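S1.2 Input.
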Amino acid sequence: MVKYIKFDDVLSRLVVCVTLLFPPLLFAEELSTYSEFPKDSKTEVIPFPVEFASDITLNGIEELVFLPGMYKQEKEDFFSYAFSWTHKPEKNQVFGKLEIQDFIAAYYRGLYKAVTEGKEYEPAITMEWVDGKYTGQIKWIEPFVTKKEQTLYFKGDQVNCKKTSELRWYFIVSPQNSSHPVWRELQSIKPKSC
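S1.3 Output.
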């Protein structure tokens, strides 16, 4: 008697083999706003508006690149990462320093509340903004690992993508001051041209 293998069985076995042999191919998240980042970085893509920061009224995506030591307190690149916000602004919609500062505050306020399961904390944001480029500080309580007060330094850039009618905000963030070598690694995270 001849046995026939069902197509479903073959397909199932093929998927299992590919999953075991090449898991990064199936589960890597494709970043649309970054072209390069350090080896062993982790990435994440989240649709906007993000659930934990509903005060940010943007429709689009957030993309994150976490340096390898992101959640390891003993590492120099602890809590060092990049993120971008991409959205299509409405016609004649303009975002200035105050709007961006409010969005950053809402983001970190919401992140803290989500991680601490409802505790309230208002981060203090200071920011300088010149010609679409910004630098600043975020004073908050780091809720993931240390649960202690932390000052995050950030640099950012605003890019208008004319071809796609998108607005992109790029941020790099670290508790290390700007003279620390981790900033060279953060600056090696390259935005894609648009």
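S1.4 Remarks. The helical segments are 7-21, 23-27, 97-115, 182-187.
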